[in-house]
Amino acid sequence: MDEVVNSSLKIVAGLPMYNEEETIGTVVTQVRDFVDHVICVDDGSSDSSARIAESCGAIVHRHRVNRGYGGALKTLFAKAREMEADCLVILDSDGQHEAADIPKLLEPILTDEADFVIGSRFIDGGGSEDMPAYRRLGIKVITAASNLSSDLDIQDTQSGFRAFSKVAIERLRFDSEGMELSLEMLEDAHEKDLKITEIPTMIRYDVPKGSNFTALSHGFTVLAWAMISLSQKKPLLVLGLPGFGLFAAGAAMALNAVNGISDSVDALVGPGLTAIWIGVLGLAMMATGLVLQSARNFIRHLLIKEFGLA
By CB neighbour count within 10 A (0-12 exposed, 13-18 middle, 19+ buried), where does 308 fall? Predict the structure, then answer.
């Protein structure tokens, strides 16, 4: 193909696919202009997505049941390794992403500036057409939690438009089967010292999408994963600060109860007990956060000292 980015390298595009018969044909046809092979993972579709993708020239791998976004990506990475791909580009099957942006995502990889490239909506030059406000807010919250957890500075952790070098294809491993894989992948890349960068891209929202309920449920799942990861890596931040806030609130309530000592005893029992349990809960959270943070630092120190690992 004349427009393939680099004929000396094997460039593979991977598309997770679930009931995308309205758009998959167009997407596969457009993507083939920029890559050597297109792999579609049919994640338990009940429509004609697989047949249409194959007729347009894609290699289709079928899941018997729907495993989710993470399950589809794990299969795509496995197939890319089997094909000994030099670069893998992941994009959605619904036409959100511009196939013409593929060369931009591959450029930092081909020049050895990055191993993992994200097509970002939130850096200069990037954007999105008609992104719902709730979705933009949700992405910002998830991104903030993810960056706190991993010490990265990524502006768009939820973009599904990504490119990976051969090193990243070989080294990245992940467990999640759902949308939370987008964050697990970033953390794994960071822990393995892979070079990560963002490239501006435009993403469309005037394409057939799932329901708002599905989008919200995916968002809550990803946010929950980000907060659990953050609590594991920075327990003092997640538990200590809220614990201090609860302790301060309990102390303030207790002082207020003491100041009103001249009132009837019955009126003081309720607020007094509330102040006590809030204060105790706050102390418990602070203590738990401190113990977990100390344990994590101690284990990290042992790993570095004994095995040179972090």
Answer: exposed
154-192 core/surface letters (b: 16 or more CB in 10 A; e: else)? bbbbbbbbbbbbbebbeebebebbbbbbbbbbbbbbbee
- Name which of 71, 37, 39, 67 is nearest 53 in CA terms: 39
**Stated pTM of the model:** 0.69
Greatest alpha-carbon pair distance for the chain in Å reads 88
Residue 277 has pLDDT above 70, yes or no: no
CA distance 158 to 183: 8
Position 242 scores a pLDDT of 63
* Residue range 213-224, pLDDT digits in tens: 455 555 555 555
200 vs 246 pLDDT, higher one = 200
Q: Which of 90, 67, 64 is nearest to 77 (CA)?
A: 90
Distances in Å between the Cα of 168 and the Cα atoms of 57, 85, 223 are: 26, 11, 25
Domain range annotation of the chain: 11-231, 235-307
CATH class of the domain at 11-231: alpha beta
Q: Give 113's pLDDT tier (boundaries 50, 70, 90).
A: very high
pLDDT digits (tens, 9 = 90+) for 20-72: 999 999 999 999 999 999 999 999 999 999 999 999 999 999 999 999 888 99
Q: How many CB atoms lie within 10 A of CB 26?
A: 14
The answer to whether 75 and 97 are in contact (CB under 8 A) is no
* Pairwise CA distance, residues 266 & 250, whole Å: 19
Closest among 185, 186, 152, 199 to 76, alpha carbons compared? 185
Q: 14 CB contacts (<8 Å, ≥6 apart)? A: 38, 39, 40, 41, 73, 76, 77, 79, 80, 88, 89, 90, 91
Tokens 């994640």 map to which residue?
Answer: 43
